[in-house]
Amino acid sequence: MPDYQAPLRDLRFVMNEVLDYPGHYARLPGGEEATPDIVAAILEEGGRFAREVLLPLNQSGDQEGCRLEGGEVKTPRGFKDAYARYVEGGWPGLSAAVEHGGQGLPVSLGLALSEMICSSNLAWGMYPGLSHGAADALRHHGTESQKTTYLSKLVEGVWTGTMCLTEPHCGTDLGLIKTRAVPEGDDAYRITGTKIFISAGEHDLAENIVHLVLAKLPDAPEGSRGISLFVVPKFLPDADGNPGERNGVTCGSLEHKMGIHGNATCVMNFDDAKGYLVGPPHKGLACMFTMMNEARIGVGIQGLGLMEASYQNSLAYARDRLQMRALSGAKATDKPADPIIVHPDVRRMLLTQKSLAEGGRMLVMYTGQLVDLAGHATDAAERERAETLLGLLTPIVKAFLTELGFEATNEGLQVFGGHGFIQEWGMEQFVRDARITRLYEGTTGIQALDLLGRKVLMSQGETLKVFTKEIHKFCQANADNEVLKPFVEPLATLNAEWGELTLAVGMKAMNDREEVGAASVDYLLYSGYVTLAYLWARAVATAERALAEGTEDAAFYRAKRATADFYYQRLLPRTRAHAAMIRAGGESLMALDAEDFDLGFRL
């Protein structure tokens, strides 16, 4: 069975040293309780819960899966007890507002906990995962009555939440949805329709499930402008706020999936179900985006969590597995062969995982600071800047980290050789589980269009400039630092090129809008590699300061420098290929007529 240890030392480095979380929390309104001692205790206890409670259920949950019996979903053995312990420990309300029953700690602290959960048991973590977004959507857009009825229950964790968007005939194009909401008076509506791919849509962990459902009113305009949002509980709350009458919501079937078998991915049928409007009529998509953006960051963390789990287990295997002798001569002379960690290609696979996981952790925690500031900064300009950067980085977190997560888990499996393909080792589960992260909450292609089209080009590049200016200032401040020159000089060049590529695509798009779609995925990947390069440069600057000042943990800081060297020399050059493909434009993509794609096998 795979093992896992929460990377607490690396989290301390990222949070306390690179990003100055103690100073961030001290300045953050509402962050006063997040003292270094409290943060350290929470992270240690979270790591213990992940390893001791969730990890033992990961492989068994994958093998057992969920069962649909008489319309009720039974989760794998141990999942329900683990969820009860999660609720008992107060984890669901860690970052929720005190007035709704939460602990009021910063959202960013919850992101660190999420990584541990995703590393130890991704499928289990999806049950409480969407509840945070559902609570946020209701907090921002719900009526006072809805907040009173649902928020404290979601925060406490005794009820869970879902997000019901997709239908059998439409995925991302939600303007095509057919689910209907008919008013019946008394502020209630009758919801009818079918939603698919609903994570945790039905289960036995909590006493009630609160569905947030997109539907159209009878007078709805066509397309996405006619979508409204409704809260539709599995059990209608009674006068005391407890689960009462069963609503017209049922699980029609469970999807047969490639991975995340321990999570119930449901087809949900709404048959004249009673629901209540959340937010203004026909503005449901905007309201749902509150939940979707949080979910997108959460999916990026899933990619990160699987990278870390894959790395830890392939590293342990590489240290133990004996195969061949090192090309430069035997290293383990007392053994019949050397451990495979001596071989350059195995080190390539390990360092790929290590540099991507540690870089991804910096990106997630950097984004977490922006979430904190966007929600709580008292200065309007600081809040606006955080919101702008968050808009830019959210599609990168979601899409780039999930692309890397799939790559890293494949490399982890490869380290095991043929044993990686065998179920008992658990590596193939990481690959299967990672594959869905590139699809849900908006595919990589959709996130890329959001980044390049909506966030960058629609702002005439101003959104991007907020971030590239930050990178430029870092490069300027360290331009004369000889130790950092191998990082600062290529970073400055790429940062300037980022703007040039943006301008080139924008100019082409003025004559042909297909150019945006042609460039978008490569643009997102390019953006991701440059973003991680910036964070790795900051990590090196931090590590070099620690070494210069003298430290008992010198090996840790030297390893940071070595890992950054690998990233810059072996992974960052991928930007050359992405830049070339961005500049190539869309002509070769659009040259072939749709009816001619099958010429090679048409009879």
List its traits.
603 residues, alpha+beta, seven-stranded mixed beta sheet, two-stranded antiparallel sheet, 12% strand
Structure overview:
The chain is α+β, with helices and mostly antiparallel strands and 603 residues long. 58% of the residues lie in helices and 12% in strands. The protein has 17 helices and eleven strands. Strands 3, 4, 5, 6, 7, 10 and 11 form a seven-stranded mixed β-sheet that branches. It has a two-stranded antiparallel ribbon with strand order 1-2. Strand 4 and strand 5 (188-199) form a beta hairpin. The chain is globular and about 80 Å long. The protein starts with 7 loop residues before the first helix and ends in a 13-residue tail after the last helix. The model has no long low-confidence stretch (mean pLDDT 96).
Shape summary: globular
Strand content: 5-15%
Number of helices: 17
Question: How many β strands by DSSP?
Answer: 11
Overall mean pLDDT score? Answer: 96
Distance between the termini: 50 Å
Fraction of helical residues:
55-70%
Q: What is the N-to-C succession of helices and strands? A: HHHEEHHHEEEEEEEEEHHHHHHHHHHH
Return Rg in Å: 25 Å
Structural class: alpha+beta
Q: Give the low-pLDDT segments.
A: none
**Oligomerization status of the protein chains:** single chain
Major sheet summary line: 7 strands, mixed
